[in-house]
Design a protein that fits this description.
alpha+beta, Jelly Rolls, four-stranded antiparallel beta sheet, four-stranded mixed beta sheet
Length: 374
Amino acid sequence: MANPVEERIASGEVWDDYCDTLKRAGRLLRRPEVPRDVFNQAEGIRYLSRMARAGLEALVEATDPDFPSFYSSLASGTIKIGADNPDNHYQTARIKGSSEYRIRGTRGTVPVINFASKKGGYHKPGASMVGTGFLDGQDLQVEPDGSFEILLSCRRPESGNWLPLEPESNLLLVRQTFHDRRSEQPAQLTIERIGPRPTPPPLDPVQFASQLMAAARYTENTATLFCDWAALFKRDHHNTLPLGDQAMYQAAGGDPNILYYHGYWELADDEAMLIDATLPPCDFWNFQVDNYWMESLDYYRHRIHVNSHGAERNPDGSVTIVIAHRDPGHANWLTTAGHGLGTNLFRVIGAGGALADIRTRIVKFDEVARKTEG
């Protein structure tokens, strides 16, 4: 008797299954809390198309843990997931916890780097991505020439850099955080599985069908997860930036060194948002403006984020950031890039649990402009 999956492949029904899942993901566009104007709906459709591309890259094209390689779907700035950080360079690789791996690299000059192993994934029920190991760049042992190696394994080595794995680990995530992309160089990394490797096999049709459906579920689950977050922020964080549920953010793959202050913003044409922040001693902070779908706005062509390296401070060390549709002349002005609403995020990195005091005000645009001129 033929395998049922093989029968669906041969008949073309697997493609129908894939498309049906994407179609189901499209129902998110019609949720009652979602903005229904043409602009935000068009961005939502573009977002779903990007998630489809991300799912195919992550779960069809780069899935072999015996032959891992780093890929960076977010590097182009056209795939944006869950308030992606404009200051980050993200890299991922598929792994399996029962194997051991070696990362080789040169440190570069990027100020912040960390390595995390994860289990789960947005393609699985619950859409969680739980940490199984973490290595902070501050703890990285680097040779005088800038080179380093990291062992990834379940068993701790006697010496050297080590990123812990668990048997269920299936993903490696590297975050590199720039203070200034124009002047800093990222670390250069390679990864290999330790031990003999099998001959790369030809396409396994049944395995491919499983990967294709995983990619479809990734699209649906990722979009659903962050639509749920946007709905929550719209209801509970409207024009505010509270600390929020850090456990929820960590379960979705957040960096354990970061405190996340997520919000939802909505401004009339003649309004601006002022964000007054007093920060604790920390390694780094940044703030960004996102759209409704929790995509960072176009940071290649618009100033939609600011960080601790480039922000102008107040005399008392605090910082005031302005979000407005047009430039009021304020040093820390961020544009809405044609958006009337969306989400936003203030990150505080390496504060050791100390909290920031972040307050928001909605004011008339002319009030900001007058203060700036004065």
